[in-house]
Amino acid sequence: MKKWMSGVLALGVALCLVGCGGGQSAEPVEIHVSAAASLTDCMNELKQMYETEHQGVTITCNYGSSGALQQQIEQGAPADLFFSAGKKQMTALQDKQLMADDTVSDMLENKVVLITPKEGGQALADFQALKGNSIRKIAAGDPASVPVGQYTEEIFKNLDLQDALTEKLVSMSDVRAVLSAVETGNADAGIVYETDAKISDNVQICCQAPSGSHTQVIYPIGLTVEGAKNEAAQDFLTFLKSEQARQIFIQYGFTPVQ
Predict the structure, then answer these.
(1) Global pTM?
(2) How far, in Å, CA of 27 to CA of 192, rounded?
């Protein structure tokens, strides 16, 4: 009888260990996010919030110009979620069937502003003031791959400034590089998103780009085809669309569009 009871007890312990996974924790999960450089600060905060609430999940963020991120995804770089500063880059990936189309939506809106250094910089009244002789270097995103550079190019063309300012332009790899150039005084002026300007204590916002001078600045978001297979990535996208995340975006100066 004692032997029989001992056997039952041993079997029960074994079944318990199997049912509890042998006492081992769940496998760690990683989410790869490719996000526009202008989203760096708010995404870092949101990433930390999510990881704190979801133990075992690690979010790896890759920040850069949306055009460079687009090319990386096309070349097979790991990316579950793409958060672009321009619709052009998202559309290009959709056209190549690299995005899960049913997950793609417009997420945020931003503004384009003209900035100068806070210390020793000029308070320019408008974009036309960039033609002045005292403005020698203007930092701007590379229009070939940087959305803010594409918006800048539109603004200059629509305000008939392109020819007058061409020799002053210094091309930058992304919007944060533009911001840094103005902060350090390596450029007399720069064109960035309003959200980037607001996080810096070393620049002053001179003015917003005139209404109608450029395409609306919309940030689309979506899962890649591979990301759509990742349940954690699906959940993180849902979190980014939550009211909690919405308030964080607003705090950083973005305007939610949904």
Answers:
(1) 0.85
(2) 41
String of b and e for 54-80 (b: at least 16 CB within 10 Å)? beebebebbbbbbbbbbbbbeeeebbb
Phi, psi of 178 (to 5 degrees): -65, -50
Helix axes 147-158, 87-95, angle to 10 degrees: 120
**Residue labelled with tokens 């100068």:** 116
| pLDDT at residue 26, rounded to an integer | 59
**Residues 225 and 167 sit within 8 Å (Cβ to Cβ):** no
Residue type, 134: S
Q: From CA 96, how far away is CA 174, in angstroms rounded?
A: 24
Q: Could you tell me how many helices (H) and strands (E) the chain has, helices first?
A: 10, 11
Contact 189, 114 (CB under 8 A): yes
Catalogue the E-assigned strands of 47-178: 57-64, 81-83, 105-110, 112-117, 138-141, 169-172
Measured from the Cβ of residue 207, the count of other Cβ atoms closer than 10 Å reads 14
Q: How many CB atoms lie within 10 A of CB 84?
A: 28
Residues 230-251: pLDDT tens digits? 999 999 999 999 999 999 999 9
Pairing of strands 105-110, 217-223: antiparallel
What are the contacts of 126-132 at 24+ separation with CB within 8 A?
126/206, 126/207, 126/210, 127/155, 127/156, 127/159, 127/161, 127/207, 127/209, 127/210, 128/159, 128/161, 129/206, 130/161, 130/165, 130/168, 130/189, 131/161, 131/164, 131/165
- Cβ(89)–Cβ(99) below 8 Å: no
Query: Strand, helix or coil at 190?
Result: strand
